What we know:
This protein has 169 residues and is mainly beta. The protein has one helix at 2-20, and strands at 47-51, 54-57, 61-65, 71-85, 99-103, 110-119, 122-132, 141-152, 157-168. 11% of the residues lie in helices and 47% in strands. Strands 1, 3, 4, 6 and 7 form a five-stranded antiparallel sheet that branches. A four-stranded mixed sheet has the order 2-9-8-5, with no helix packed on it.
Amino acid sequence: MRSSTFLGLGLIIVGGFVLAASSGAFDVTNADRGVSVETATDENALLALEKTDQIGLEEGNFVCEGFVCFGGYREYDVEIVTISDQTPPPELAIERERLSVETENDGNPSLENWELNAVDGEYVVEAEFHCDAPIGSQQTDSTVLAFAIETSDGKITIELEREITIQCE
């Protein structure tokens, strides 16, 4: 009986060491991996934009104000940006309510109106600008147009803002 007690006690101690000791499998692993992240250009992004940084307005239609025409403005209809959805289906919701088009001030040139039109699977934002032209001669000035869009297809959400300089030349 005494030998079985010693044997049992020895097995318990050895079992404890086996449980406490490493099994020889992976305990810790280290790996060095490099990661690089790049942003796409506006033309290659999921929501592609075709735009310029500056739009020059010159030789527009003269609109006379008043009976004797001592003042007026030159009127311009301009394409501001073309938007292309390059995401996998389903398509992004590109609607006027999801866009913002505004100038930094109400000066010269002034943003009178803008609209969003679907053309050949793309969306074109067009705007009407007025450049002050007292006595027919257009005044040189500029303003910054802020363009922003927030759109989603339920899985992907895209928010972006761009600025374009509008110049009465």
